[in-house]
Task: structure prediction
Amino acid sequence: MKTLKIITLFVVAAAFTACDDEWIMDLTPPYGGWLWLVHNEAILKIDPTTGERLDGFDSHHYRDYNAGLAFGDGKVWVAWVEILDDLTGEYEGFFRWIDPITKEESPKISLGRYFHVLALAWGGGYLYLTTGLHYYRIDTSQDFENDYVIEELFEYGDWYARGLAWDGTYLWTATTKAKKISRLDPVTGGLLHQIPAPCEGAVGLAWDGEALWVNAAKDNRGYRVSPKDGEVLGYLQYDFAGTPRGLAFEFPSE
Result:
């Protein structure tokens, strides 16, 4: 099976080299590590260099309302929405963490009524989240079973963000309709840099220590792109039928 996946990637690379003879597929994170993604059926761990599935678990009741995904503190963090009333459209946002080794799950943690998280990122002990225009963070050392604080950071943009990543210093966000990926000051929300998204329907965003990964919901692909100018460095063609949504990166040290 692994050989088949590698052959598939070479076929994809050949399509690019037909347009640019110097184009070389570069999918290797500088420090190693793995991709995590969530779609409407499962959360999957993937080898970014080959596309091979290494681990995964069912996404349970999240289903079509999966949105954000993050990896930090040795845990997978996932956010979703539950419809409370089909007639009124009332809903409630939730998140939880999952231990990828033991598969232990925390109780689901409420974010409140009409709190629809579209993207997550983890960095420096904080879980960053966005509802599209508004950005928040949660100190993950809090006691989630009792009281906890959601800190509102800033508002940014005119288009809903569907991806969020933390590069160790700054936040990156991907906006689907505007087809842009933006680097933001995590305190003020000030725009510091912007690159074009590599695809239509950009959802999910992750940082591998050198480059950004972004999912293409319409093409069922994951692209690796340069943070300098958005140049496509390589991509994976996913082999599942569901629509990719949230994306996260696990470093070996985590």
Observations:
- Residues 121 and 220 are 21 Å apart (CA to CA).
- The chain has one domain: 26-250.
- The helical segments are 2-17.
- Residues 1-21 have pLDDT under 50 and may be disordered.
